[in-house]
Amino acid sequence: MNLATVILKKGEGRTIKAGGAWIYDNEIDKIDGAFENGDVVAVQDFDGFAMGFGFINTKSKITVRMLSRKKDAVIDEAFFKERVRDAWKYRKDVIDTSSCRVIFGEADFLPGIVIDKFSDVLVVESLALGIDRWKMTIIEALKEVLAEDGITIRGVYERSDAKVREKEGMEPAKGFLSDPFDTNVEIIENGVHYYVDVKDGQKTGFFLDQKNNRARIHKICKGKRVLDCFTHTGSFALNAGVAGAVSVIGVDASQIAVDQAAENAKLNHLEDRVVFECADVFEFLPGLEAKGEKFDVVILDPPAFTKSRNSIKQAVKGYREINIRGLKLVENGGYLCTCSCSHFMDPELFAKTIHEAARGAHKRLRQVEFATQGPDHPILWDADSGYYLKFYVFQVVEEK
Q: Is 341 known to be catalytic?
């Protein structure tokens, strides 16, 4: 089969040669041959050097998403099944697979698709036109690979309802990709039981990327008073409770999330020690400070304050303020767990912002540990995206 060929401008192939996954519209000199958006195309440097194959979509600024660097690659069902098999083998090596992210887009060399496994249910997010054409092939391949390990998938739900699909010229898509099933799925993670709403929960229903970080707080929460801000459906709060915290308050601005968190507390028989309030965290924390409240552990896991470089300054203000507020509520010798899930808030800038917050709150920090997203969300070096989560644990001390 003859494929169209994308030829890059002179000097524009450096990022791809260095491991980048995307080719932008302004890097392309010309396209030889006929194609439809979503097709697989060959990619060549200006001098004819073969650079591999990818999906093309001229409606997107990311015009080509690379699939393979091999000049003899054949992009067919067998190709995708091998990619899926590799992704599952890797997860089995690095993480508890009862619930995990099985496919993480470019980091698994399957650009534009995410698949999360919640017990025996798959949730799919397809964000690029090219991969969307192969979506069902990838899903069926994954079901077959899982079946080889004795895992039967009872249902598949699509959550391709992110606005970013519009940049690909695609409509949002949401619904069953299998026979209908109960979309409130019970999972167990770190010994904590949750109901995950795969139909209407945020993203794919649950934030799997913090799994290992939630486990990290267990030791410091035993016998402690804990405040969990931006709790969503209660994951950090419930981990604190299971770890033996004497009291936990979880706060979130979404009543739906808070109601789900309360259900999760009952599911774990923690409703006597883990309680939730619906409130704006930026308004709630000053109220606690005014009352003279203090906590042994304060957890800050806010949503991304920025999703573009254009609003980074405003995001820095938000992260600085929330960390100042949180630090003021930590008992001397207590702990602050603080996160950023924004790709555009790079590690250096996030560290600088926390440092400024500590000075503003007149506190000193002793770093206990730093972590990123779980290994089921691997960070592919030299790619254009994938590293986004920063997680710190600090001991908060007064001047000695």
A: yes
